[in-house]
Structures are given as structure tokens and as C-alpha cells.
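Following up on my earlier thread - several people asked me to post the actual chain instead of describing it. Fair enough. Here it is, all 78 residues.
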Amino acid sequence: MLVKVKIFVNTGKQEVIQKSEDVFEIKVKEKPIMGRANNEVIRILSEFFKIPESNIKLIKGFKTRNKIFSVKLDDFAK
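Reply from S.P.:
Thanks for posting it. Predicted structure:
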């Protein structure tokens, strides 16, 4: 499953807003330095979908606000 995410970095809080089944807005406290914000988004998505972080891969948008993640749900329930 591909998930489109618009991230907001360096915010005062962390929040997940689900716009549709595969579109999210995520606010993170991390700054976009050395991939920290991307790693935090992966951690947040793994908690949201209740799957291991290893099942989530950033496939597009490494240096932009709009990103696409590959999420492998397999046998995990949402």
C-alpha cells in the first residue's frame, strides 16, 4: 500500500491527521536535519498502523514536504 504524507516539521506537538484512506498530514517536533524528521514520521506511521517500522519505507520525497511511503500491512490489522 502506498501512503501519501505531507509533513510539518519543527512543530510544538506531534499529530497525525488522516485526510483519506491513504493520505495523511503529520506534524513532528524534529527538525529536517540528517533524516531525523523522516525517521520520526516512520515511527509515527508504525504506531498508527500497529506494524513494525521495518515494514515502512520512504520511496519518494526524501528532501521535500510531500512524501510517499510504502507500507506493508501483511497480516497486521489496523
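The mean pLDDT is 93. That should answer part of your original question.
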